[in-house]
Design a protein that fits this description.
The chain is an alpha+beta fold. It has two domains: 3-74, Winged helix-like DNA-binding domain superfamily/Winged helix DNA-binding domain (Arc Repressor Mutant, subunit A, Orthogonal Bundle), CATH 1.10.10.10; 82-253, GAF domain (Beta-Lactamase). It is globular and about 55 Å long. The chain has ten helices and eight strands. The strands form two sheets. The chain has a six-stranded antiparallel sheet with strand order 5-4-3-8-7-6, sandwiched between helices. A two-stranded antiparallel ribbon has the order 1-2. Pfam families: HTH_IclR, IclR_C. Residues 5-68 form the HTH iclR-type domain.
């Protein structure tokens, strides 16, 4: 009875694993490792997906890439879900104003995915976030701020279910996550003080949809000394202002409904 659901899940994990390795592509073994699936299973799935254009092989190699049918489907979905047109000038303005790397991320289920990156003028940058990077809610500042603005019941269920410290260290155990939530709710913005990569800081503000749900986040990242105590509140307030304006803009368009 669960077979169709399981199959869809395996396909989704395989396509996401291929996407991680774009544009160079990945071998079947690499996709299987990334997706956490047996190699023969992944080979069958990717071969079947190739027949309908959802994957294809890089000519002359054994690497898989996403297929043209995904582009066509994505183009059709853009009219409903694309928010980057409104977010891009905001992200560029943040990078120009602060000199830091600026980002726009979206919530997708229990993860955030980075959609836009713009680097500022400061030459030393953090490379934790990049376009296409995914992190669980509660990890990196975008995931922290979105999680903190969810309803208490949803937070409680999520925190009880996930185990982030296994992959991201003791600084992401349940007690620490709840401390981050409390601090974020106090300030309105989230701060990641080098919890994923030492010395790489981030600060983020949530962007809300018309229903008041945290659907996206604006983030600034950089090296630790650029986020000192005298500057951090200024960056947080700037993000909050830009996030509020972007929330109103997206709500007026009906984007993401």
């Amino acid at each position: 009875m669960n077979a169709p659901h399981d199959l869809v899940g395996r396909i989704h994990r395989s396509l996401r694993a291929v996407a991680v390795h774009e544009p160079a592509g990945a071998t079947t073994t690499a996709v299987a490792r990334e997706a956490g699936l047996p190699r023969p299973t992944v080979h069958r799935l990717l071969t079947s997906l190739q027949r309908v254009g959802l994957t294809e092989r890089v000519p002359g190699t054994d690497h898989w890439v996403l297929g043209p049918e995904l582009y066509l489907l994505g183009t059709a979905a853009t009219r409903r879900y694309d928010v980057t047109e409104a977010a891009l000038p905001v992200v560029r303005r943040l990078a120009l104003t602060t000199g830091e790397s600026a980002f726009f991320s979206a919530r997708r289920g229990e993860e955030t995915i980075c959609l836009i990156r713009e680097d500022g003028a400061f030459p030393i940058r953090s490379h934790v976030l990049y376009e296409g990077a995914r992190f669980p809610l509660g990890v990196v500042s975008a995931g922290m701020v979105i999680l903190a603005h969810l309803p208490d019941q949803e937070i409680d269920e999520y925190v009880a279910r996930v185990e982030l410290r296994t992959e991201f260290g003791a600084q992401h155990d349940r007690d620490e996550i709840r401390k981050h939530i409390a601090t974020t709710r106090t300030h309105g913005y989230a701060v990641n003080p080098g919890l994923v990569v030492e010395g790489s800081w981030g600060v983020a503000a949530a962007v809300f949809d018309a229903a008041g749900s945290p659907r996206w986040a604006l983030t600034l990242t950089g090296v630790a000394h650029r986020f000192a105590a005298d500057r951090l509140p200024q960056l947080g307030e700037l993000l909050l202002r830009e996030a509020h304006a972007l929330s109103e803009s997206l709500a007026s368009r009906g984007t993401g409904r």
